[in-house]
Structures are given as structure tokens and as C-alpha cells.
Amino acid sequence: MRAPQESLRDAKTAVSNAEPYGEPFDDVHDMHEDGAPRARYAGESRSAPVSAMSSTTRDAARAREDALNGAKADAPESLEPLGPDDPLAPLPFNPYKGNRGITRAWHAMKNSFAGFRVAIREESAFRQELTLAAILLPCGVLVPVEPVSRVLLLGSVFLVLIVELLNSSVEAAIDRISLERHELSRRAKDLGSAAVMVALFICVMTWGLLVGPLVVHWVSGWVRAMQ
After folding, report:
1. Cα(85)–Cα(75) distance, rounded to whole angstroms?
2. What global pTM score does this model have?
3. Active-site positions?
């Protein structure tokens, strides 16, 4: 099989050696056989009809078309560059991802503290949950329970804070895209709020099961002592 480059080169040679179809029409009118001007319609060819060509010209035109069609069939398909929205396109270069080692850890720590400051300053729900954590965390450390139970108590409190931070980040990303009311935006925010509610339920259930009996015992002992 001939290489696509050779087929294209032969096609170009045939085009250069072929006789022209005929005199090109005027930009606005062509002529009838009697010499009267005739308006040319949109999409009409600028070349003379094939019936008006000589046999040599028709043979050259057919040879040129055959050569071009064969070259197109043999040539590989041209690959268009991938657009920025194509999932197979490479990710754009991010200058903030070039840090390595200790430098990366230092910048990550600064960004984390910046996120805490933003959450405390902008998110009232996070401030309320942070106040609740400031009360529950010391109680979880001081309450007389087993180590595993202590880890569960403290972990449930941190879980609420983590989920609230993720919910706030999702809301910020949605507001960054658009502030208009949209069903998908509302759904995403509602799902984030539901995740926070589940985390709060886990926290309440954990503290109720592990600390609740101790509280009941202390209260009943205090009541008996008062009688």
C-alpha cells in the first residue's frame, strides 16, 4: 500500500497538471449562451459545467478527484487538540502544587489555619459547634470511662467539626459557581446539611450511651444524699 504522503503528493501533482474547468464566472453574473447576463444563485459552482469541458479536461478532473479521494482514505485521521472541558485533556499546570517536603507541609499548615479563621469568622454554625466542642472535649477527657469509650466520645465531637467544615466548603464552591437559585445547588446544600445532622446524631447517641448511665448514677446519688 502506498504511503499517505506519496498519495497526497501525487494528488497535488495531478491538480497542478490538470487543465482548468473553464473560465471562472463573474462575481455577480454569468452569461447565457446568447450573451445575456444571468444572475448566479447561491451555492452555484463558479466553474463551467462538466458538459462544456473537453474529454481531456474531464479525464484530468476525474483523475484528480480519484487521487484526492484515495489520499484521504489512506491518510490517518487528524487528531484535534483536546479542549479544556474534555475529560481526557491533561490538567492545567498549577503553580501552587510545586512545593515538596517541608515547604509543602508549611504551606499546608498555613492554609489550614487560614481555613479555620475563615470558618470562625464567616460560619455561625461552626462557631456554635466549636463552642459545644469546647465544653464536651474537657468532659470527655475527665469522665471516668474506658480508653475506647473515651476515644469514641472525643471522636464524635471532632466528627461534627469535620463534617461542618466540609459542608461549608461545598457551600462556598457552589456560591463561587453561581449565586442564582438552582435546583441542583439547593440539593447539594441540603445534602451537606443532612450530613451535619447525621454527625450530630452520632455525637448525641455516643454521649448518651456512654455518659448517660454515669450521669444518671451521679444524679441519683446526689438526690439520695440530699434526702
Report:
1. 28
2. 0.56
3. 164
Q: Are residues 65 and 122 in the same domain?
A: no
Reduced DSSP (H G I as helix, E B as strand, rest coil) percent helix, strand, coil of the chain, to 5: 70, 5, 30
Q: Which residue has the higher pLDDT, 52 or 153?
A: 153
| Residues 74 and 1 sit within 8 Å (Cβ to Cβ) | yes
Residue-wise pLDDT tens digits, 173-214: 999 998 888 999 999 999 999 999 999 999 999 999 999 989
Domain harbouring 149, CATH code:
1.10.287.3610
Rounded alpha-carbon distances, angstroms, from residue 192 to 126, 171, 195: 13, 8, 5
Contact 215, 143 (CB under 8 A): no
Residues 155 and 71 in one domain: no
Residue 168 domain boundaries: 118-226
* Number of alpha carbons in the 13 Å side-chain half-sphere of residue 37: 7
Q: For residue 54, which of 11, 18, 29 has the smallest C-alpha distance? A: 18
Mark whether 204 and 146 lie in a shared domain. yes
Q: Residue holding cell 466520645?
A: 153
170 class by beta-carbon count within 10 Å (0-12 exposed, 13-18 middle, 19+ buried): middle
**56 contacts: CB under 8 Å, gap ≥ 6:** 19
- Output the pLDDT for position 114: 93
Q: How far is CA 168 from the centre of its chain?
A: 20
